[in-house]
Amino acid sequence: MPNVFGKLFTISTWGESHGGGVGVVVDGCPPNLPLSEDDIQPELARRRPGQSEITTPRKEEDAVQILSGVYEGRTTGTPISMLVFNKDARPGAYSEMKEKFRPSHADYTYQTKYGHRNPEGGGRSSARETIGRVAAGAIAKKILSLASKVETLAYVSRIHDIAMPPAEEVGISSDSIEANVVRCPHADTAEAMIERIKEARSKGDSVGGVIECRIRNLPVGLGEPVFDRFEADLAKAMLSLPATKGFEVGSGFEGALLKGSEHNDLFENRDGEVRTRSNRSGGVQGGITNGEDVVFRVAFKPTATILQEQPTVDLQGKETTLMGRGRHDPCVVPRAVPIVEAMANLVVVDHWMRQHAQNRLFSF
Q1: What is the average pLDDT across 174-190?
Q2: Does residue 255 lie within any of the structural domains?
């Protein structure tokens, strides 16, 4: 189904940007997991609009309600349904976009595919859909925190043409990531990024960027060759996010410029464990995690809706112009950080459950 993600730990998101609300149904969550809205809300607060001067001014508390699947503070093993009401919807700002297609947005493709669409804020194609992903990801994060030492840290590594130094030189922690509104762990680079976003906004324009993510302390063995390779599911998770245009793991495209003798991660025995001296593989070999940090990057395009008049066409195919309206992020990347973390945690939990089901259930 097109709105479902995962094999054993599954999520189904629903809702539109300016409808009554948005939410998610999580199925496959183990029973007896301590869970409340307090476990979900902090992650939604990191994603919500209106949180800083470089985000959309839309004011939403994004207060989550757990409707099912939890009794007396613990999960029951049945589907968990969560709801967030839309409080600051302004559908009238999109009346012109009902007839005209925004350049590089999903308006045209949705209209052509379905013949009928919700144009208010992009409807289902809006980034507001990701509320359900973050809420579900918070449950996955809670499972991982109780069952393992896995830590998932995403951060902004590039905005437009401004890039931070390599992570190995900076040192990455949740505190350093959340120390500024752009969520770049390198303070000097963060200041330059913020100014670049402000500059684009002042001109009614937008900029894109790159998020890097590191998943630490993963066990060896997660991943299902051939089609459900760990990095393949990560790629699907990330490229399913709005505004994404690229995904790479480990050395990524730069690895294509190296020779095998330069690129290979040499094995060594380190304190009784098989480890690699380098990590150009990005923590995955043959589609299976190898115990090193999983490192990947996701590229986000500039926000499509900009406050500049642009040529376009209308429903009848007539050439016209359109000035973007509504409230939009001049750069979606800082708010996408918790979304990337959520999707990564969902992939980890799903593969962890699959590994246990296949290799731990029976002993021969």
Answers
A1: 97
A2: yes
Q: How many domains does the chain have?
A: 1
Show the domain range for 165. 4-359
Residue 316 counted as domain residue: yes
Torsion angle of the four alpha carbons 98, 103, 107, 113, in this order, in degrees rounded to the nearest 10: 130
pLDDT tens per residue, range 61-98: 889 999 999 999 999 999 999 999 988 766 666 778 88
User: CA–CA separation, 174 vs 169, rounded Å?
Assistant: 16
> Quick check: 364 pLDDT over 60?
no
Tokens of 90: 């302004």
CATH code assigned at 269: 3.60.150.10
Indicate the average pLDDT of the chain: 93
Residue 122 CB burial class (10 angstroms; 0-12, 13-18, ≥19): buried
Q: What is the DSSP string of 34-102?
A: B--HHHHHHHHHHH-TTSSTTS--------EEE-SSEETTEE-SSPEEEEEE--S--GGGGSGGGTBPP
Q: Which tokens is 42 given?
A: 């902090």
Cα–Cα distance, 8 to 27 (Å, whole number): 8
Provide the token pair at 230: 């760990």
Asked, for residue 364, whether it belongs to a domain, the answer is no
Find the helix or strand (DSSP H, E) in which 25 lies. Answer: strand 21-27
What is the reported pLDDT for 362? Answer: 55
Percent helix, percent strand, percent coil in the chain, to nearest 5:
35, 25, 40
Report how far apart, in Å, the C-alpha atoms of 300 and of each of 31, 150, 334 are. 36, 26, 10
Tell me if 256 is assigned to some domain: yes
Q: Which residues have C-beta within 8 Å of that of residue 361, sequence separation ≥ 6?
A: none
Closest C-alpha among 175, 207, 170 to residue 331: 207
CA distances from 86 to 64, 98, 106, 325 (A): 11, 20, 21, 19
Confidence check: pLDDT of 134 > 80: yes
Residue 54: its pLDDT value, please? Answer: 87
Instruction: With beta carbons less than 8 A apart as the criterion, state whether 343 and 1 touch.
Output: no
R_g of the chain computed on alpha carbons: 21
CB of 132 within 8 A of CB of 11? yes
